[in-house]
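Example record

The entry below shows one chain as it appears in the dataset: sequence first, then structure tokens.
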Amino acid sequence: MPGTATRSSGVALRRLMPLAFLAMAGISFVVLGGHRYLTFAALAENRAWLCGLVARWGAGAVLVYVLIYAALVALSVPGFAWRHRSPV
């Protein structure tokens, strides 16, 4: 079949896109200095501001937290998802 090789390589590249996105996001986070702001010390320094934000937003703060948490869980890729599957 003439189109088989092209299709299988296209599928393989498409399957690697989420991994490439995660790698680019992680590299961007470190290069832009995000690791300096996402620490327990930074949270402790900004505790009053965060508590005030939650008091003002109320249920909206809970919704934002749930959405951010869901996005982080969706972006985490368990190791077993990347194992090679044998064709059926």
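Notes for this example: The longest helix spans residues 4-31. Residues 39-76 form one domain.
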